[in-house]
Amino acid sequence: MEKYAVGLIGLAVMGENLVMNLESKGFPVCVYNRTPARVSSFLEGRASGKKIGGAYSLEELADKLESPRKVILMIKAGQAVDDMIQQLIPVLSAGDIIIDGGNSHFPDTARRLELVEQAGMLYIGTGVSGGEEGALKGPSIMPGGSEGAWVHVKPMFQAIAAKVADGSPCCDWVGSGGSGHFVKMVHNGIEYGDIQLICEAYHLMRDGLGMSAGQIHEVFAEWNKGDLDSYLIDITSDILAFLDEDGQPLVDKILDTAGQKGTGKWTCIAALDEGVPLTLIGEAVFSRCLSAMKQERVTASGILSGPVPELDVDKDSFINDIRDALFASKIVSYAQGFSLMRSAAASYKWDLDYGQIALMWRGGCIIRSVFLGEIKQAFDNNPQLANLLLDDFFAKKIGAASSGWRRVCASALSAGIPLPAMTSALSYFDGYRCERLPANLLQAQRDYFGAHTYERTDMPRGEFFHTNWTGEGGTTAATTYNA
Fold it and tell me: Looking at residue 480, what is its pLDDT?
């Protein structure tokens, strides 16, 4: 019987395109789908004449795979993955490898890893980014899980992954446990932030400067030649130039209510769990929630008063300021995202290579950009870098953009144009560079009403004090202290 290099379960858009990619790189694939007709139609259509076979049961799939068997799941995250693993374990053997390529939540991946390894098999939870085109032509792949599985899948994964200019693949081993899916989750959170920042720049030009979609298209096309060169800026330029059948910009006819699949929310929850300020991505998630309240916003627009969103500025110079605000805010977004990964690595005992992660994101994925090369360089220069803002390159860049960034935020606030991501990024930047924040008062308040204690500036760190503020509270302090 002919044996296949890998099996793939799930023939939706991503699954189909990944199969075509694998086969084109010399890895024959056997496919399975819970709906048998999908297998047949795929084999008779796109897969016809290629080294792609089909299976109509999991037992048949297992029989057709080389040892150690490698089975990629491209199915809906959640219970469906758990159910499929339970069905696969009895038909696989010790040393076989189950690979979840969906957008699973990293704690689920860690739990599944333990289950599969207890059955004597290996498990990989891998982020796959790049959408339909990336799956077909080369995605960014972020695998983590059973360390022993990497040697078996590395040639295959790196062959199908996107490549940067020097030929380096946008795929490398991330680490143990659920680290692969965690890194993909942070990627998606940064994607939320990038998209929101671009939308705010568009909002400023559309409403504040009264520019048409075509005019804004030209601005984004120009920005894509410099520091902001990226996939998302590129497609934004294309979208703004796209005309509907009547010759009018299609973007102007799209309802302003945004959807989301949950990975941005997961990123924010992880940041709260880790105590890491992920303010920009949090605002990006909440901005989507606010956009979904369309009818409420329509009602509120007729009741609540505010300034007319028109900016009395020199148009050309202000567009340059918007570019600076977008770039500076983008630096903050990535700084926060990498800080979250560093904190989680310590919590979960992952050995993450942040420069390598930046390289994995340089091609194939949705946030791919020239910018990521500088992030890789920053971590190559200092693998222990606490925050990207402390790197010489980024410190200088954000310093140079700071004046324009401030002018944009101040002008927008005065004109009533919401910039939740840009303004929160600026507040984070100012807070991070502030030697003395007002949290001394906050700690005094907590001690006043809850005896939560505080540290003193004139005493060593780690010594905690409680004051009887009213003369009636006594000297007993709370037993826990959270900085």
Answer: 55
- For 128, phi then psi, to 5°, come to -130, 115
Q: Which helix (H) or strand (E) holds 183?
A: helix 179-203
Q: Which helix (H) or strand (E) holds 181?
A: helix 179-203
CB-CB contact of 163 with 138 (8 Å): yes
Kindly give the residue spans of alpha helices, DSSP state H, lying in 302-390: 315-348, 354-360, 371-381
Residue 230 above 50 pLDDT?
yes
Mean pLDDT, range 442-458, rounded to an integer: 94
Burial 30-69 (b: 16+ CB within 10 A, else e): bbbbeeeebbeebeeeebeeebbbbbeebeebbebbeebb
* 59, containing H or E segment: helix 58-63
- Half-sphere exposure in the Cβ direction for 219 (13 Å, CA): 24
Q: For residues 52 and 46, give the distance between their C-alpha atoms in angstroms, rounded to a whole number.
A: 10
Which residues are designated catalytic? 184, 191
Q: Are strands 70-73 and 52-54 parallel, antiparallel or unpaired?
A: unpaired
Q: Which two tokens stand for residue 267?
A: 């990123």
Dist CA 211 CA 318 (whole Å): 12
Strand pairing category for 140-145 and 122-129: antiparallel
pLDDT at 483: 47
Closest to 189 (Cα-Cα) out of 387, 197, 257: 197
Per-residue tokens: 402? 């700071």
The helix (run of H) or strand (run of E) holding residue 143 is strand 140-145
- What is the tens place of the pLDDT at every residue in 308-359? 898 999 999 999 999 999 999 999 999 999 999 999 999 999 999 999 999 9
Return the closest-CA partner of residue 145 out of 131, 127, 129.
127
Q: In whole angstroms, what is the distance from residue 115 CA to residue 112 CA?
A: 5
